[in-house]
Amino acid sequence: MSTTAPLVEAPQLTGWDHIVSGKVRELYVPAGVAPSAAQEVLVVATDRISAFDHSLQPGIPDKGRLLTGISLFWFSQLEELVPHHVLSATDVPEAVAGRALRCRGLDMVELECIARGHLTGSGLADYRAGGSVGGHVLPSGLGEASRLEPAIFTPSTKAGPGEHDENITVAQARELLGEELTDELESLTLAVFEKARRVAAERGIILAYTKLEFGRSRTDGTLMLGDEVLTPDSSRFWDADSLVPGRTPPSLDKQYVRDWLISPASGWSKGSGTPPPALPAEVVEQTRARYVEAYERLTGESF
Description:
- By secondary structure, this protein is of the alpha+beta class.
- It has a domain at 108-256: ATP-grasp fold, B domain (D-amino Acid Aminotransferase, Chain A, domain 1, 2-Layer Sandwich), CATH 3.30.470.20.
- The chain is globular and about 55 Å long.
- Strands 1-2-3-7-6 form a five-stranded antiparallel beta sheet. A four-stranded antiparallel beta sheet has the order 12-9-13-16. The protein has a three-stranded antiparallel beta sheet with strand order 8-14-15, with no helix packed on it.
- Strand 1 (16-21) and strand 2 (25-30) form a beta hairpin.
- It starts with 15 loop residues before the first strand and ends with a helix.
- It has helices at residues 63-78, 121-130, 170-177, 179-202, 255-261, 281-299, and strands at residues 16-21, 25-30, 40-45, 49-51, 54-56, 86-88, 100-104, 106-108, 113-118, 132-133, 136-137, 147-153, 205-212, 214-217, 223-225, 235-239.
């Protein structure tokens, strides 16, 4: 494991004002610039990890660097389909080099754009409850890991810190954002997913689902990809050789942490109202190993 201590707090950076702490990322604007008017921002990926709307302790060493490297790989793969917010990965403060991106300032769309190519997680729960996901009525007889062809767009609300995203239907998204924007988001999300699904498959990885975020450029209103893209935090990656229909395959993402939290080994209950326990050293190490494997298999580079 890396000997570098995880970065879990927002660092102070000369020339930049810290404005927002997310679950994983810290957002900065140039010093003295109003956040709402900033034409560029600095996005710093920490080593924090969250699950079930809780920030967990300790962090995962190198996680922010891994997320940033994977996002950069995907932004370059997808830029012919949709523009993205990244301006530079190198013109950043030295203290956060490798984990920071200098990006365009965006006015974010208040919707989580989720594409599902396999049934699992909350999508499977919705299907079992009513036979549909995101307003899409699906065939009967599907189960864990069933492939969806074509993939489906299943939006959710964007929750604030400590709150929970809620799955909604495409019709409800149209009520919130209007038909034209919702249809554009659906088209872009599915185009990105299908391209990413093919790229991942070439590397022996199944992309089960992913969550994307979009925003409009403050200079010309262009709709573009923001935040992170197709990382083990925002996606479910499975090893293709391990897929058995009806079973949850081993994952190369933070599902490993979720599974430990709800196992008897953690001694914690989701409904207890108490914070989750600290992650044991073995869970931290195994989680990092999964993120490294995802990075190396996707990008073809050693970490």
